[in-house]
Amino acid sequence: MSTLTIPRIELPCQTTENDADLWFADQPNLLEEAKSLCQACPLQVQCLESAMEREEPWGVWGGEIFERGVVIARKRPRGRPRKNAAVA
User: Is 35 a domain residue?
Assistant: First the structure.
């Protein structure tokens, strides 16, 4: 009798070299790092779709940042915003 071995899929969010807190960090640069790790994930699309269905309150899911259940482009750092908007 032979046993069938199924190859294990390497997911960036579940490897021991990536801290799980990275996907729920407060610092925008860490969230951008998590987003970049998601780009190579074979389950990125499914992860994003599921997170949108669940209305995940926060974190990086499927390569996108969620805040209050909505996808946002970038997370702003903590603190007060500038009084004068920076000129681009």
Answer: no
Domain total in the chain: 1
**Domain limits at 63?**
42-72
pLDDT tens for the chain, 88 residues long, are 567 787 778 889 888 677 889 999 999 999 999 999 999 899 999 999 999 999 999 999 999 999 999 899 888 777 777 777 655 5
- Residues annotated within a binding site: 13, 38, 41, 47
Annotated binding site for [4Fe-4S] cluster: 13, 38, 41, 47
Q: In whole angstroms, what is the distance from residue 42 CA to residue 4 CA?
A: 22
Rounded distance between C-alpha atoms, residue 27 and residue 38, angstroms: 17
Asked, for residue 16, whether it belongs to a domain, the answer is no
